[in-house]
Amino acid sequence: MVVDVLDLVTGLCLKSGRSRSRSRSRSRSSSSRSSRSRSSSRISSRISSRISSRSRSRSRNRSRTAAAAAAAAAAAAAAAAEAEAEAAAEEAAEAEAAEAAAAAAAAAAAAAAAASASASASASADADAEAEESEESEEAEEAEEAEEAEEAEEAEAEAEAEAEAEAYQ
């Protein structure tokens, strides 16, 4: 609608002989609006990029905290299993089966330690994989934003060129 009004006004100005100065003024005004629009678009893109980067960073930190908590829980379970194994070994020693209980306690402690190491490694691997995915998605988003900004600038340049061409016709 604004374009139609501008076309109508341009046509009237052509008839009255004042078209060139007014069309130049409009062209400068249009160019100024386009420049402000591009600047606003760039600022908006930067803000969006920073927000998404911070969000991904918080997500990675939560994953690392969860991995550390899982490792601590596994270590506590291993310590409890070892304490139970020691208690069982003491009871077995009193009942003449000390060697069998000690072997069982050692096996239980080894199994608990293996479970702890496995849980810790799994949690760490999950956190690393999530961090890697987050970085890849961040790079993809930044590339997409850059591409959109370039397309917007090209479209604005074409619009300016068309406006100038119409102004001189």
First and last CA, distance: 20 Å
| Beta-strand proportion | under 5%
The gross shape turns out to be rod-shaped
Instruction: Estimate percent helicity.
Output: over 70%
Quickly give the structural class.
mainly alpha
Order of helices and strands: HHH
Biased composition (Acidic residues): 83-97, 127-169
Biased composition (Low complexity): 28-52, 64-82, 98-126
Biased composition (Basic residues): 17-27, 53-63
GO molecular function: antifreeze activity
Structure, explained:
The chain has helices at residues 2-16, 19-94, 98-168. The chain is an all-alpha fold and 169 residues long. It has one domain (2-168). Helix 1 (2-16) packs antiparallel against helix 2 (19-94) and helix 2 runs antiparallel to helix 3. 7% of the residues are buried.
List the helices and strands and how they pair.
Blueprint: H1 2-16, H2 19-94, H3 98-168
Which keywords apply here?
96% helix, 169 residues, 3 helices, mainly alpha, 0% strand
